[in-house]
Amino acid sequence: MAAIALRGIVKRFGDLVAVDGVDLELEGGLIVGLIGENGAGKSTLANIAFGALAPDEGTVERNGVVGLVHQHFQLVERLSVWENVLLGREPRKGWRLDVAAARARVRELGERYGLHVDPDAIVETLPIGLKQRVELLRELEREPAILLLDEPTAVLAPGEIESFFTTIVTLAKRGVAILVVTHKLAEVIAYTSRVNVMRAGKIVARYVTAQTTTAELARAMVGGEIPPLTQRTVLPRQVLPVVHVQGLQANTESDSIDGVDLVVQAGEILGIAGVEGNGQTALADALAGLVPYEGTIRFRDEDLGPALGPRGRIVRGMQIIPQDRQHEALVLDWTVTENAILGRERNREFRRGPQIDRAAARAFAQTIVERFDVRPPRVDARVRDLSGGNQQKIVVGRVLAGEPTFVLAYQPTRGIDVGAAALVQSRLIEARNAGTAILLISFGLDEIFALADRVVVLYRGKIAGEFGRDAFDRARIGALMAGAS
Amino acid sequence: MLVAGVNPVDGFSALLIGALGNVPETAETLVQTTSLLFPALGIALAFRAGLFNIGAEGQLLIGGLLAGVIGERFIAPGFIAIPLLLLAGAVGGGVWGALAGWLRSRFSANEVIATLMLNYVAIQVAAYAITGPLKSAAGEGNETGELPASSWLPTILPDTRLTIALVLAVALALFLRWMLRSTVAGYQLRAVGDAPRAAQRAGIDLAKMRFWTMTFSGAIAGFGGATIVLGVLHRFNLALSPGYGFIGIAVALVGELDPIWVTVAAFVFGILQNGAIGMQAAADVPRDVVTAIEGLIILVLAGRRIITRSGAD
Amino acid sequence: MFSFLWLTLIKSAPLVYAALGGVLSERSGVLNIGLEGMIAIGAFSGVSISFATGSALLGAIGGVASGALLGAILGIAATRFRVEQIVAGTGINLIALGGAAYGLVIVFGQPGASKEVNALGRTGEVVMVCLALALAGLLHVFLYRTRAGLHVRACGENPRAADVAGIDPLRVRFWATTAGGALAALGGVFLAMAELDLYSDGMSAGRGFIALAAIIFGRWNPLGAAAAALFFGAFEALQFTLQRTGIPVEFMQALPYLAALVALAGFAGRTRAPAADGIPYTRVE
Predict the structure, then answer these.
(1) Statement to judge: residues A168 and A267 lie in one domain
(2) For residue C275, which residues of chain A lie inside 8 Å, CB to CB?
(3) CA distance B177 to chain A (A)
(4) CB B71 within 8 A of CB B56
(5) Chain centroid to CA A160: how far?
(6) Is A120 within 8 Å of chain C by CB?
(7) Are A111 and A65 part of one and the same domain?
(8) Residues with Cβ < 8 Å from B229, sequence gap 6 or more?
(9) Are B75 and B152 in contact (CB under 8 A)?
(10) Are A454 and A467 within 8 A, CB to CB?
(11) Which chain B residues have a beta carbon less than 8 Å from that of A322?
(12) Could you tell me if the ipTM is greater than 0.95?
């Protein structure tokens, strides 16, 4: 008897059909993988299985408690570990909360599963790996028969991934039915016994893991071959680097850097590898002029200084592709045209006196739409109505138009479909070939390996190693990302 | 209205007749419209930048105070005095708005509470000014003496209180619409309101924009206060506003923050305001019911996602 | 000195009640700008019901109920209709103030102020002051030591996480806001019936807004907010003590508001409201 059975599940969000007729069964003791691209519908399906979303059609039969470890943690940051783990099921002594019992329970769970955390620690002070532990403990507290894991290793270093899966395998041995939702094919091959491939809301292929390969899975996920990227040309090395960072220290809410030195040359892509939360945001925001910093950032031999804000950097030829296009790059309710000139609205080419030159703005937007194959190709469309991939193309298009001297690309292909990602990556290489210096921050090693001329690893706010393209060593880089020395 | 034992139909028809029944009443309705339109435009502008200007009442008062106090003492031909006094009103309101803007930009202080507090401080400042150091010889209690006739705003319709202030208000509305839609400054203001983090990364100085928007918003309200002093009352009186600054919020929302529709909304509310008196006289319904109705309108409209929160910076 | 302390307590009591009401609703995630209106309605209803029944106690109960009603309206607006809470609060203020002014004519036949009614007297005054301070402590214990209080705090910080844990954020917010309204109205009852024995137009005089400053100053914490309210109340008490000096009356009267402004400038940037404060929550279905 299946632990959980989903039959004929359909789920729509307005016009979008996120899940389009899916059948899925899980058995106790088995680890099953569900893979697919961003936007394929995996998270939605997981939420339906969990019960957070109701399907529009189809049935869900559950034989036991279901737990879901979310991709974006559902933790109350300002509360303590035990308050989060036991939220909604808190032990009581009369009308008071029984804090001692709560602490004991957290410790007991920690012992049983090898997931130790201080019950009284406030969640927002914990590093991200421990936060995930709390998220997992919360689900395990309910003693689930079925455990769903949504992109569980996105924030873990390679070593942590291993110990995470050790816990999962143990759980499976105890009879829990486990579903791992991920886009990381290597993990699926290593740890699951069955794999389902989802594409555009449907399950398009099912495999027994032992009988398939990552290449086959990749093809099933994408539904075809990925177009090759632009060729990189060999460029003469300049004497003066475009960007020269020395001793940089900065703090943001998410992470901090503590003495970073690096150099980016014209016509080079420098990749920053690392697990999320090790200083990438601090580095990006310091370079963008959004946070105060110590140390120096020299741009073409000019010391920028922390007082020079974003405008000063833009004026000098620095452009940024931010991590979060919806909140940091685009005004969703505006048109493509209006978004295209954001950051350039003061330039003479788009101005006539105090007024905006609408015709010039539209022409500019049109060139971006054409060069980046934005669909639908209408400059009057509201950006909110475009898909993630097309939104990102507008951001990248706007950044690369005008041939900037330096581009900081922070997760430039996050959450977009393969076709759009390939186009963005090709355009970045073309910019590099034309002499732009590019700093690429990405949490996906594949992307870094595809694009970068050099790689440095960022770990806990410091540079942990540097590799030239001919010396890319996946295992070594992975180890450095996790803190090996 | 039902609570008062009055037939709502009678009540409303008394309201409409009171507001539009004849030419003098319609003129008075337009006077109310004008007095509402200025603060409403200022509030709408602030809302577009993601700022909640709940202090238009105080800004209006300070603007009127300056216009009244200076106007009483400064005697000059109309074409000099009037623009000067109106400017004084704008400066007064602008300074009052700037205070809140400064608190927001420099200290990240919540401008809702700051502007609210400043309303009450404004009342005290005005009261102190006209009973103390700036007490006029002719004025008594809570008002200044009358302004010289040369400083009065010219009327459009003889024997009414309707002055060119209406024309100025509508012109301002048109100007603001053009500014928001077509100019670089308007583009940046809207960006700050609609997507502050993206605007900041694009090089727009959030603190500066917010400060100047609050200042400009206050200046518009202050200008409005000055028009009441110069055109309607011909003196400054502590009770010059029956809550225009608060009702202006409703007007701005009904007009969906678009200057042209805000003008239309101001007319509707002008009917409510003027009609209330007629309603009280004819149908025995106290005029405060109108205040409550206006509050109800605000409450009902609060659901429309017109204003985006600008969030913490 | 003692009389100054007592005066401070009297002047602070309405602020304490209102601030506590605001803390409760904001901790659940609903920003309550309508405290001013809730004070006014509590004061007006209390006086009216006392007038109608002759009983001050019934008046007080009625006042609290009216505040709860306004709180419930805000609660529904915030949860079911997911409105912009600052705007809704402003609307509630106008409804309450206009309604009360209108009500004066209906109930008492005269605008501006009510007639004198049976009030709570000296004993009632003392009881209510003590009650205010006790409630501050009780609310603190509720929020930090009980299950329900933990749920309230979770809803104010991350309603989605609470939802996932089986708590209904919309229900929690509704009840927190309703109770908050009742508390704030108690402040109005004190104002009209403990300190005085009548209601007059505009008697709330911005106290609801000062209470908001007290909440920020007190970092959204019942004891802190009560302490801040006492601090602001002291400024009001100072008015009377300083009246005999040459300082202008108006400056004295502006003191509480100025103090609140200074507090905003000094402290607002460094503290954080509950993370989901003011942001409507949508249950994804």
Answers:
(1) no
(2) 77-78
(3) 13
(4) no
(5) 18
(6) no
(7) yes
(8) B64, B67, B68, B71, B85, B89, B147, B235, B236, B240
(9) no
(10) yes
(11) 198, 201
(12) no
Q: Which domain holds residue B193?
A: 8-301
Count, residues in chain B: 313
Q: Which two tokens stand for residue C58?
A: 């019934």
Q: Is A459 helix (H, G, I), strand (E, B) or coil?
A: strand
CATH number at residue A324: 3.40.50.300
pLDDT digits (tens, 9 = 90+) for A423-448: 999 999 999 998 899 999 998 788 88
Instruction: Output the six-digit token pair for B228.
Output: 């009441």
- Nearest by Cα to C207 from C183, C237, C233, C189: C233
Contact B230, B147 (CB under 8 A): yes
List, in sequence order, every residue forming a beta bridge with A201; answer none if it has no partner: none
Helix axes B23-48 and B165-182, enclosed angle (nearest 10): 30
Q: Does residue A408 sit in the same domain as residue A442?
A: yes
For residue C252, give the nearest of A88, B121, B50, A426 by alpha carbon: B121
Q: Tell me whether residue A267 is in a domain.
A: yes
- End-to-end CA gap in chain A: 48
- Looking at per-residue confidence, does A217 or A225 come out higher? A217
CATH of the domain at B234: 1.10.3470
Inter-chain residue contact C106 with B3, CB threshold 8 Å:
yes
- Best of A308, A311, A342, A351 to substitute, by most chain B Cβ atoms within 10 angstroms, is A342
SS3 helix, strand, coil % of chain B, rounded to 5?
Answer: 70, 0, 25
pLDDT per position as a tens digit, B91-119: 999 999 999 999 888 887 878 888 988 99
Domain boundaries, position A293 = 243-329+404-481
**Closest in B132, B253, B294 to C94, CB measured:** B294
Fold of C2-270: ABC transporter involved in vitamin B12 uptake, BtuC (1.10.3470)
